[in-house]
Amino acid sequence: MTALRPEYEAELAEGPEAFFEPLRHGCPWCGSVRIGGHLRTPDLLQHKPGRFRVDRCHSCGHLFQNPRLNARGLAFYYRDFYDGLGEQQLDGMFGGRTASYRRRAESVRPLVDGAKRWLDVGTGHGHFCGVARTVLPEVAFDGLDRSEGAELAERRGRVERGFRGGFTELAPDLAGEYDVVSLFHYLEHSTEPLHELEAARTSLRTGGHLVVEVPDPESGYARLLGRWWLPWLQPQHLHLMPMGNLRGALAELGFTVVAEQHRSAHEPVDLVAAVWLALEGAAPRDDLPWLPPVGPLHRALRGAALLAGVPALVAAALLDQAVAPFTGRLGLCNAYRLVARKD
């Protein structure tokens, strides 16, 4: 922790402004200039310096970070989240979602009958593939990720092959190899989501299926919870696409949507996550290398504040579970999933 502090101080010497591209004046999805501010928020998870704005296109409804992080900014804000300081915590969190991954695999299984090869893009440490292999034992799973997680997934036997790198760069070498390509909570992290869809089309054989799952910005929870809605996930989520926009893009690329799923894509965490983010925001900050150092008294106060919030967290978690069976009917699903066939 202490060893990292000088590195972060050097990176922040020019201020967070150095991490952003110029402000956009048009929608990156449809090109309309009818855009406006929708959300302003700091980094509510890592508490790294900077403030972030999400704009909405009033023509097509697309939501996007504006100004967007540049390559240097993406590297800075992703650092120590999925790797480094955050690697063990994130690996444990994703590893504990076995039931969720099983439901995901079971929900698409009838739609991809006969599939033999599956590429999971943005696979992380390959946890989904490791679970899905038990649901679809006849399928060989490969994983692709920009991080070393793809290689780790291969070493741990969760995928047959782990590809490290960008999907758009690697897709030509994988042309026509796969019966299924999955983009589970991947597009929202992409700088150019339409290019990622093109890469998926390249990697699929004719008649193969693309499975896309993304946060639903039209969820009632997004309006109800404001900046405390976890799927805003600033500064990592660069694009949030209304379902109609994604369906239209897939049709233009030569796909036919064969299934639209909401309830099975929903994760019942909205309320407990909102309470946790609010509690984290109110409590004294943790001892992190991108923040000023703190002493024992500060850490004790933080521990006491978080402990005091436990009853609220428990109540929110119980309410999440109670509401979960009705989220589809109430328009509260926090994600949607599309399965599309390459024609």
Describe this structure in words.
This protein is of the alpha/beta class. It has 2 domains: 2-86, Single Sheet (N-terminal domain of TfIIb); 97-218 and 240-266 and 334-342, Vaccinia Virus protein VP39 (Rossmann fold, 3-Layer(aba) Sandwich). Helices cover 37% and strands 20% of the residues. It contains 14 helices and 11 strands. The strands form 2 sheets. It has a 7-stranded mixed β-sheet with strand order 6-5-4-7-8-11-10, with helices on both faces. Helix 4 crosses helix 5 (127-135) and helix 11 packs antiparallel against helix 13. The longest helix has 14 residues, at 310-323. It is globular, with a radius of gyration of 20 Å.
Distinctive features:
343 residues; alpha/beta; N-terminal domain of TfIIb; Rossmann fold; 2 domains; 7-stranded mixed β-sheet; 4-stranded antiparallel β-sheet
Give the tally of β-strands.
11
**Secondary-structure element sequence?**
HEEEHHHEHEHEHEHEHEHEHHHHE
Give the uncertain stretches in residue-range form.
none
Structural class: alpha/beta
Largest sheet: 7 strands, mixed
Q: Give the integer mean of the pLDDT values.
A: 94
Number of helices: 14
Main CATH class of the largest domain: Alpha Beta
Q: Into which percentage range does the β-strand content fall? A: 15-25%
CATH superfamily of the largest domain: Vaccinia Virus protein VP39
The Rg value, from CA coordinates, equals 20 Å
What's the number of structural domains? Answer: 2
Strand order of the largest sheet: 6-5-4-7-8-11-10
How far apart lie the N and C ends?
52 Å
Helix content: 25-40%
Please give the CATH architecture of the largest domain.
Answer: 3-Layer(aba) Sandwich
Shape: globular
